[in-house]
Specification:
With 207 residues, this protein is an alpha+beta fold. Helices cover 62% and strands 13% of the residues. It has a two-stranded antiparallel sheet. α3 (128-164) runs antiparallel to α4.
Amino acid sequence: MSSTKKPEGAALSRDERWLAFGAVGVGVIMAGLIIAVAASHLVETFAGGTIRLVAPFVDESAELPIGPDGTMRTVEVEQATITAPDTPLISVFALVAQVVVQALAMLTIVACLTWLCLNIARTRIFAPANEHLLGTCALASGLAWGLTMLLNAMSINGAFASISDRDYNNVLFEAELTPLIVTLVFGVLAAAFRVGARLQKDTEGLV
């Protein structure tokens, strides 16, 4: 039985080179977009010298002119952008750190996936490095998920405290499950690549 693994130092075929160039190009573009979005979010948050952030609400309503001829209608409010000019420093730090953590996690994932694509282009599909790359993606996603929830709660609670002088019982904690699902997917893929690497090693041992 022969191995399909490309020998060390072997030249890439034309298709493999295109795949490698495409992976690097997409990775660079995505990294640039991530940095641009993070910077734009920070600029928007601190525009005008005051803190603006999206806050969750529960069992709250507001009047909006959405009826015929602009008549007021009552709507339920689940999220709204609030302005907090005197937000505590710790909440400002949490707000900035939240954006930085998300950007760093996404940059880490993009870098790892780009490296993974390069390995696949070189037909090193079940190389041990691929398992570690996917594990790093899972770790980055999981850490970012936990830290972002904590930092988001700190920033929102501080903003509400500054606006209401601690007299409003706002939502203390809000969980987003999508990043957790992404973390689990990366973990499952890392386990699958580990099994594939073990099977390939066993197969090569039969040659």
